[in-house]
Amino acid sequence: MNRNDVIRLTEEIGFLPEQKFGQNFLCDESSAERIVELCGLTEGDKVLEIGPGLGSLTSLIVDHPVDLTAVEIDKRLAEYISMTYGCRVIDEDYTKLKAPSYDAASYNVAVSNIPYYLMTPIMKKLLTELTASRKMVLMVEKEAIARICAKPKTKQYGPLAILCNLYGDIKVEFDLPGNYYYPVPKTTSSVITLTRRDSDGVLSDGLVSFIERCFSNRRKKVLNNADIDMRLLLELGYSELTRAEEISPNDYAKLYVV
């Protein structure tokens, strides 16, 4: 789907992109093909696409022998995607989506062009709820890469970087300039892939809450921010003065006690 296709469809549908939904539609065909290829789809996969828009990726995914569910907050686009591509469409805000509307644990692959203002909540939800997923292919604001890939003892290091690291291997694949979208955003996007390691049972809502408490005040000792077993903290090689940004992702998983 190229730029002319996207503009034509918006005119045919009588659709104007909504800024409140962060609607910028990918209109570079080669990039869309690369993104779907990165998903590594195999027969029988259950795929979750968040924010299909006008279907730049959807149109390619449905050509594979997979079971696709698209989540689209905009009712006009949800109806268009359902009628055009015949896949299951959930017309809801993904950040508020709960069972039984969708079975999060059943999806093998997730793909999304994430609105910039919803990146963190959407990624946290994906990482903690899609427990059977092996791959996530996400388009995020390029400036956010520093937070996603941040290492301990840096200013950018925080809960999102920790969760991504615990999920698996993170790779920045390629950039998407603003002119690859319609309307043209003021920022550049990057395509990233997250490939699961053996993190079954590690990621959970409880772990997210625990890590966020640890970072509630970065200037304070982590022991002042959250309920942590000091003996275990010392056994892991840290001190009573340790701050949240000094603790590695794997050690956060060890420090979290249900």
Count of separate structural domains: 2
Order of helices and strands: HEHEHEHEEHEHHEEEHHHH
Number of strands: 9
Largest sheet: 7 strands, mixed
**What is the SS-derived class?**
alpha/beta
Give the overall average pLDDT: 93
Number of helices: 11
Low-pLDDT residue intervals, each spanning 5 or more residues: none
DSSP strand (E) fraction? 15-25%
CATH class of the largest domain: Alpha Beta
Instruction: Based on the coordinates given, report the CATH architecture of the largest domain.
Output: 3-Layer(aba) Sandwich
Main sheet strand line-up: 4-3-2-5-6-9-7
What sort of overall outline do the alpha carbons produce when their principal axes are compared? elongated
Rg measurement, Å = 19 Å
Keywords:
11 helices, Helicase, Ruva Protein, domain 3, Rossmann fold, 9 strands, 258 residues, 2 domains
What would your notes on this structure say?
With 258 residues, the protein is α/β, with parallel strands linked by helices. It folds into 2 domains: 194 residues, Rossmann fold, CATH 3.40.50.150; 51 residues, Helicase, Ruva Protein, domain 3 (Orthogonal Bundle), CATH 1.10.8.100. Helix content is 34%, strand content 18%. The protein is built from 11 helices and 9 strands. The strands form 2 sheets. It has a 7-stranded mixed beta sheet with strand order 4-3-2-5-6-9-7. Strands 1-8 form a two-stranded antiparallel ribbon. Strand 5, helix 5 and strand 6 form a beta-alpha-beta unit. Helix 7 crosses helix 11. The longest helix is centred in the first third of the chain and has 11 residues. It is elongated. The model has no long low-confidence stretch (mean pLDDT 93).
